[in-house]
Amino acid sequence: MNQAWKSKLASSFFALFAVALLLVSGSESLARVGGGQSYGGGGGSGHGGGGGAIIYLIIQLARFLIYLTIEYPIVGIPLDIIVIGGVVYYFTRRNRTIESEIVSVVPAGPAAGTAAVDTERAFNHLRRFDPNFSEIIFTDFCYALYGKAHEARGRGAQALDLFSPYLSESARTALVKRNPPGLREVRGIIVGAMQVTDLQGLDSPLVRARILFETNYTELAGSNSQPSKEMTYYVREYWDFERKRDLLSPPPAQATALHCPRCGAPLQKDTVGACAFCLTKIDSGEFQWYVRDITLMSREERGPLLTSDVAEAGTDFPSVIQPGFVTVRAAFEQNHPEFSWSQFQARARLIFDELQAAWSSLNWERARPHETDNIFQMHQYWIDAYRRQGLRNALDQCKITAMQPVKIQEDAFYNAVTLRSWAEGFDYTVDAGGRVVSGSQNNLRRWGEYWTFIRNRGTKAGPARADLNCPNCAAPLKINAAGVCEFCGGKITSGDFDWVLSKIEQDESYAG
Q1: What is the mean pLDDT of residues 295-306?
Q2: Does this model's pTM top 0.90?
Q3: What are the backbone dihedrals phi and psi of residue 431, each rounded to the nearest 5 degrees, phi first?
Q4: 166-201 per-position pLDDT tens digit
Q5: Cα-flanking dihedrals φ and ψ of residue 110, to 5°?
Q6: Considering only CA atoms, which of 251, 253, 256, 247 is closest in space to residue 285?
Q7: 3-state secondary structure 83-100
């Protein structure tokens, strides 16, 4: 075989192999705190550059195949066809599987707005019957119930039965069926994403909401004579909620406490399965949201991978702006004359800077005053994952380059403002020895995200703070693990005193 033919063949194979690599890298997803990962374990630190052990092994395999193709074509060429055909088949089947699983999920990107508008319109319609309904409180309730239910199944069916006022028998059975032999505990439950994919029944006495959860949790199982075994799962599942349409939603503290929905007493059952205090047996959404069915879509044995590189997606998408935003904004400004966009954005920049510093230093306690409980716990999961793997995701010279208000919501308890922010910085991951394992210290990374901030409507009117003092007592900002100021005792992370971060969504997945 002459040298020119060998060179041409090698170039062709490299081109085909590059396509395969693009397919692999393009399959990853992104969800960061200014850097970040996929809750499915497949997304890396979301930062270009770098490589890793897996890429190295793939390249060595490619070199071996090229060698066989050039020197022993009768063996190499059939292997090339098999490998390339296998890659194409895998991703074709994978994409079809994903499409079949996600039946009615809101689409990503610029087209997402239409479906999101329908959900928002449905929630606004629900408020005609329930003026107390708050999407923020509903989200917190779903997060809390999901976590408590999985923790309970780790203690057995009897422990899970205590949640019968919120979970039907079929829902509880669906959860218990997942338990492996000798299950001792379910822990590390992190809700990476939660999406309302359907809302029906607003013209009937019963409202139904379908929720898609994308989560991680770890199961600890083993017999008394054997050491326990841990397995981390990436899970996608639908929960079908229902409730009486004309029910008045409880205030925030009561909504997420998961007490008896009727009398507010601790969850405790008598011999016939009724509340031990008010003697009411609850098997519907008469008093609070009730889970009728749970459908497991996928459960894969994999934890977070932190050294993959993922290209940015959606940064150049046009902003998804709330329908009628100009009118909504004008009404909000009129109703809140004390509100200043410049002061609000200054606070948003402060929170952005504090989160990047906390993330890069693995000192997530620094971020505690600035996030609601749910998002803080989600981010803490990733910090712990980095620590366990001896890694650190560094975000150097990060700064916000532009900000755009895109959505304003008001309900009976909260105000919420969503900003689309564009930022840039050097984004890379290092191991314990300081070696860069992904990302780049030299290539500037640019990205965009949608950040939602909330504030309690009962907050005493005043300008948003852009300093590191308690927004309630003005003392130096020092809070405990529960988000309470150690000087005045105020719950800072609830949004009772100033704006706090409630949600981060990526450009390619934000639905409005």
Answers
A1: 80
A2: no
A3: -90, -175
A4: 999 999 999 999 999 999 999 888 887 788 999 999
A5: -60, -30
A6: 247
A7: HHHHHHHHHHHHHHHHHH
